[in-house]
Amino acid sequence: MNLGNFSLSLEVKDINASLEFYKKLGFKQIMGDLSQKWCVVKNGECTIGLFQGMFDSHILTFNPKWDTDFQENQDAPDIREIEAKLRADGIEPVKSFEYESTGPAHFVIEDPDGHTIMFEQYL
Q: What is the rounded CA–CA span in Å between residue 89 and residue 70?
């Protein structure tokens, strides 16, 4: 199953301090709004989202319709297909979307250790 672009979403205490830290590691900001206390940074194929006050913990994030350059991946499955496959395999989401919806959506699962995994589709 192609899960698309992967990123780590980090809950941070200070968005500006975190951004400056990751810049020193060679990351460049590629999207975001610091006034809303979030941004996405990238170094090579590694993508990290920095979020202040938005989440309770760190999150593994998959964007099925995006490639590693945040370009649309036409061959990727719709997020609803991925959720249906996971449900068929016995993995129940802890947060889901309306099944009758189309376009942008997201759902959340947890691994056996309680780590949050989010699947997002912006298209």
A: 28
